[in-house]
Amino acid sequence: MSNPDIDIVPIEVTDDALVRSWIDMQTAVRRHDLPGMDLPLPGLQRLRLLLQPESIKVERWAARIGTTVVGSTTLVMPTQDNQHLVELELEVHPEHRRRGIGTRLAEFAERRAAENGRDTLLTGVVDSLEGAPRFDHSGQHFAKAVGYAEVDNEIHRRNDLAFIDEDGLDRLRADAWNRAAGYELVRWVSEAPEDLLDGLARLNERMYTDPPQGEEMDIRPAEWDTARIRDIERTMAERGQLQIGTAARHVESGEVVGFTSIAVNPGDEEHAWQGDTIVSPEHRGRRLGVILKIDNQRLLRRYRPMIRYVHTWNAEVNDHMISINEAIGYRPVCRDIDVQKKI
Ligand SMILES: CC(C)(COP(=O)(O)OP(=O)(O)OC[C@H]1O[C@@H](n2cnc3c(N)ncnc32)[C@H](O)[C@@H]1OP(=O)(O)O)[C@@H](O)C(=O)NCCC(=O)NCCS
């Protein structure tokens, strides 16, 4: 069917039946496409409809047949940088695929992007890896069919905390500290200490420029300040998300030279999500990355001892970060191909 009979409507948090049907559709998509992976958390999905940081504008749209949600698209639009960009999510219920619903949603998203003054859409599609679970590849074929080009590759890895060799990590950490004299760690949960904020803002800016990134991928530099960090922290706290952070500080100068963070979603005792990790260039090569990641993972385990998996994504060519992750136990799950369309 090339012209499916669907309505595309905004997802309003107060429309309980619509929101339920949307979450059911997302759950069916995950079960079908990524069996064994985490499922949407209904409470968090509802909170996401209510609460967003000021640094992004989010539009969520559902494709319905009658009252049943059969697909959806989300446009995440940065407001304080990258104002050309839409980070897109798009999914169709497995029982309603290959009838043109995805195409209709993609066309609709392009129209909304243009109406919001944006000319670049960026999203991810899944590719299975040898020796890892076999996942659904519809997204890859679809992205090509609707005009998206591959611009980068990331590997999704996860660390199974049930099999962590803590003695091995102790040795790795002790060895790393031999190379890291003159630095100290600062740890926090949910709210970073005030005196770190300027340093964290500078490091967050570097996340847009330092990690290797595909040449055609159009992500541009950003400016961060303390208000932006506090706003994100506050939004996460209001949504019940726990953020666990560790920073490295150069003792003599007081400079914040690196940080890492992990987020845990409300009501999830199984999965945690690695956020950014960065060490500033002048302080690299001193094993601060290893120390930060081991310590922050241990802080997570103190707060949420039942958490089983920590997930992370790295550009396939980011050898330094990957070797750190592999050393502390992360193993590949799948490849996420970044695909982009210019309109
Ligand atoms: C990708 C997805 C949105 C496609 O939805 P859909 O409603 O089936 O898409 P359409 O019917 O509009 O498909 C358009 C074209 O994409 C291609 N395509 C889509 N799925 C495909 C598949 N599994 N194998 C081969 N080609 C496929 C075909 O060329 C298709 O046209 P055709 O059916 O006339 O051959 C859906 O499979 C999905 O939700 N996947 C999981 C999430 C995801 O990967 N999102 C993609 C982000 S870009």
Care to describe what's here?
This protein is α+β, with helices and mostly antiparallel strands. The chain has two domains: 7-118, Aminopeptidase, CATH 3.40.630.30; 158-332, 3-Layer(aba) Sandwich (Aminopeptidase). The chain is built from nine helices and twelve strands. It is globular, with a radius of gyration of 21 Å. The structure holds coenzyme A. Residues 29, 33, 90-92, 97-103, 123, 125, 138-139, 141-143, 145 line the site of coenzyme A.
Measured on Cα atoms, how large is the radius of gyration?
Answer: 21 Å
What is the name of the CATH topology of the largest domain? Aminopeptidase
Instruction: Note the beta-strand portion.
Output: 25-35%
**The CATH fourth-level homologous superfamily of the largest domain:** Gcn5-related N-acetyltransferase (GNAT)
Number of domains: 2
